[in-house]
User: Fold FAD-dependent oxidoreductase from Amycolatopsis minnesotensis.
Amino acid sequence: MSTTPYWQETLAPVVPGPPLDGDVTCDVCIVGGGGTGLWTAHALKEAEPSMDVRILEAGTVGLGASVHGGGFVTLAGAKVLRRLLWYYGTTKAAGVYKAVAKSMLEIGRFCRKNGIDAEYERTGILQVVTDTKQLARLQLQVDRARKLGMDGSMTVYDAEEARERIGSPTVLGGMTAFGAVVNPHKLVQGLAGVVRAQGAVIHEQTPALDVRKIDGKFQVSTPHGVVTAREVVLATNAWQHTFSEMTDRVMPVWNHLLVSEPLTGEQLARVPWPGREPVSNMRSFFFTTRLTQDNRVIWTGGRWHYRPGRDMAPENARNPEAYRELRTAFDAFFPAWHDVRMSHANGACIGWSHSFIPQFGRTSSGLLYGHGYTGAGLAASHAGGRILRDLILHRASEYTELAYVTVNQPKFMPGKFGDRGADFFVWRQRTGDRIPLLLPHRAALSSRSFFNRHRRGPAERAGS
Ligand SMILES: Cc1cc2nc3c(=O)[nH]c(=O)nc-3n(C[C@H](O)[C@H](O)[C@H](O)COP(=O)(O)OP(=O)(O)OC[C@H]3O[C@@H](n4cnc5c(N)ncnc54)[C@H](O)[C@@H]3O)c2cc1C
Assistant:
């Protein structure tokens, strides 16, 4: 199996540009050339075309987590919604959902406007349940979405209807929600091209080694030069913890994915999947699956792998245990595809924020940051670019009012305690997924009446 991310093979090889060589001064220096850094540069140059914006990228632009993803353009997961409601209340939670939903649409518009064929499709996403505990979660999710007024694009399906949409014998029901798919590599490379055309400079092979504030300006040291800037944005996602002011805010955890060989027509016909929409289940460590344009199946998610000491060495991407677990889950969900061969297996780190809620803001020294998508950053990083733009321009806006911009975020414990906490969390989630529902819950006890009540779409409900 190849360990190169599959998406990378869908474009001609990307050759990194030359590193920064010498000292430079600019208005804004963005550290990290993934979705967050690029969307920030794009939004800034749109608002202030004359602004001198530079991006420092340790490797090649877009080849961090962005190229490793499954390409699911989604709203935040169920856990995030629960926490948003819990920490911030209904209005703020709805504000985040609306902003990210808007970003999901704007990504499509951006591709069309700039002629980027990023395989963007507004498919919706089908969330399925495969055990009684998830039935209870489905009910809670439906109730919460209604509370936020976000149920407009939501339709609930009982087991039979859900299996017509995705032919897995394990499915007990499901719901569709707002969502899209994209080829994340083509999107990020297209975005990088637009950002360069707007006049922002991207220095690849240029790791930021240290950031200091001297006489009211920031100095970012790199191996071959120093960048002096009025504003510095840390947009390094799972690597954020490598900067001293960020140590306790982001925890890197490994997540892996499998990509199959292209399915034959006969293989495809074995599993009904008429809408080809991406599918996820509702376990704590949920999986997600989708088809690519060349009819490969992507299977990703499952448990996180924490490496002591926050080890992000690239060789951790090769993880036979993770691949075995993913394959077992794939075979259980798609028994009809037991003979499908996987051609690609790899992994990367997601940036886990303690609250699971993405975080944007300023540190006490004045550094700006954006991170903590906890595995769902494609759409949220677009909204994040707008937030960072408005924070840089010191303008109050609908973006700076979002619950993502907070000051008192819960943090991870440092050192050994942080390691143990992360281990414990992974254990707790895995155990929770294995233990069946213990408390009586109305959806799980009487799934028939739940589906009868909810499965009609919003239009039908309004008409009844
Ligand atoms: C296996 C997997 C599957 C995923 N699937 C999805 C999905 O389907 N949908 C979704 O929405 N999200 C998904 N994600 C998450 C998504 O990929 C991230 O949330 C998103 O890429 C974050 O973008 P970013 O720009 O913040 O980070 P990144 O894309 O990781 O970019 C950060 C960049 O910073 C650079 N950098 C780091 N340190 C330095 C330094 N010191 N100096 C200079 N540069 C530095 C890195 O090289 C990197 O290019 C997935 C993640 C993984 C790991």
Notes: The CA atoms of residues 53 and 313 lie 30 Å apart. The chain has a mean pLDDT of 90. Residues 6-69+185-251+355-420 form a domain with the FAD/NAD(P)-binding domain fold (CATH 3.50.50.60). Residues 31-37, 56-59, 63-66, 68-72, 207-208, 235-237, 239, 255, 257, 300, 347-348, 350, 373, 375-378, 381 surround flavin-adenine dinucleotide (CB under 6 Å).
